[in-house]
Amino acid sequence: MADSTRTPERRYGTRPTMKDVAARAGVGLKTVSRVVNGEPGVTPDTVQRVRNAIEALGFRRNDSARILRKGRTASIGLVLEDLADPFYGPLSRAVEEAARAHGALLIHGSSAEDPERERELVLAFCARRVDGLIVVPAGDDHRYLEPEIAAGIATVFVDRPPGLLDADVVLTDSYAGAREGVAHLIAHGHRRIGFIGDLPRIHTARERLRGYRAAMAGAGLPVDEAWVSLGPTDPARVRAAARAMLDGARPVTALFSANNRVTVTAVRELSGRTRPVALVGFDDFELADLLDPGVTVIAQDAAQLGRTAADRLFRRLDGADDPPEVTTLPTRLIPRGSGELPPS
Amino acid sequence: MADSTRTPERRYGTRPTMKDVAARAGVGLKTVSRVVNGEPGVTPDTVQRVRNAIEALGFRRNDSARILRKGRTASIGLVLEDLADPFYGPLSRAVEEAARAHGALLIHGSSAEDPERERELVLAFCARRVDGLIVVPAGDDHRYLEPEIAAGIATVFVDRPPGLLDADVVLTDSYAGAREGVAHLIAHGHRRIGFIGDLPRIHTARERLRGYRAAMAGAGLPVDEAWVSLGPTDPARVRAAARAMLDGARPVTALFSANNRVTVTAVRELSGRTRPVALVGFDDFELADLLDPGVTVIAQDAAQLGRTAADRLFRRLDGADDPPEVTTLPTRLIPRGSGELPPS
Fold first, then answer.
1. Which domain of life is it from (chains A, B) (predicted)?
2. The pTM is what?
3. Contacts of A75 in chain B (CB under 8 A)
């Protein structure tokens, strides 16, 4: 009969509800519910009528509502700084693979390094009852998450620690990595070394600067404050900082670029110069080995950060209630040429 | 009083429900609902008791449930091929910015080029009542989406068209772009040109191959089938394909690499060779200009693809019900050196 042909009134409309199905089938809501949930007590004829109505309306059982009743949405929220930063690609993929292995969906958002936007995203995710959160924090006060965590939303921070909140966190050892990179430049004869990093309110930027200072101090080398520049990683700022250090009164002979965004711009600036300048960058990046010279980096394992954070999160979701833990992953120096240039 | 102090029983538990609040406040469920929804008919004393219970339990009103009642989840699902492929970074970010401008959340997933996984993700998103979907399809039969679209889930395909389904789609002109890239190599004197592309079931791979053949035919050049290789983009396969073409009986003097994953491996393979081989790649990539030689590419605007798809989606969500449309964006040739090398 005509009822079995799907004839939606319009292409993009509001989803049909169980009520619509009941009206079309000429039965009560309870009957539709029984059919949808495979419960007994409905005659075969009526089952068929309801099924025809379901088919005709394109009705789909509302899984979200069912999951809400069970108290589990099987989804996790991931808040990053920037979806387009290649550093976060392997991290996101690792989290996604873990979520998939646990049958959970991934909800994604970028804070754009804006603490207010981070908060909005996190709370929007919580309001949608994610089971857990993995957050690369932009802000430095995460007390707003206390009620959410208390209410059962497992939360793991990654890449940077939370502020004013006791929670699980997975970090790379930025301090030791930067110290090793700068010590590497010193071992190759450099005495005047510039440091270009991210915004000073970002934990990793501060830690890497601390590593730079420790390496310089460890070698008995003074630091001219003109050699240190923290700020946004946009190319114009980084280029200006590099130029000031390279063309100043006491020009540096080497640069330590404290993340992949800075390194890419530093490479561009140095490629236009005749005097060779040594360079070590924090974070590895694609094709770093094919540049001339190859770019020496302090590599962190972004995929391992994501995997570790996801493992921690799912252990929490499985009921682990030991105190929050800080996990720190090591870095790895990869010499490729740019960090082994002697002072000119 | 003690009730106003938050004392959750455990750190990671199940979320408290309205029923828990009712039990703690010693009132009925309807009363809690009235307080939560700001409805009249509750005495100030009782309101205070309910509020204390809410605070003590860390209860949060269930926005998802409220939104479900309104029939709008204010979220869109984005299904990509691989979160870690740099091509999708700007595309994702553009979609996220558009979603944010419309107050919608972004749910993200990767198909890993697996049609079954694409289908699972899409249906999981639908079951969670996303308002709309943006899909980079992995499969070639999307009839499974018909009931969802009929039920009101706006769907836009991007980068590749859907199979057996009439829907909005935003593409790059792969055919014209590849034809221009290969014609560029021919204009620089090449007659034997290799083509290395993605899996033949991927629309863009087929379109780019079609462009290659059209350029060769347009110049009256025969194509030796040993010069054409389609397959997965993993480095081992691409390297083997390049070697076979470069070291074969009729070695090619130029390569056209049909996406950024292929190009990066082709650059690696060519960097180890003494005989110069010309190269044009489809897709721009970071640092392409700093390699030696710089890599000539056919650039597509991934951010514009994302923006256009999102604009289309939100127009649909605003009620536009004109027939599905195919939008094709142009490519841009960027000569940087590798594509201008003469045959050796």
1. Bacteria
2. 0.80
3. 107, 128
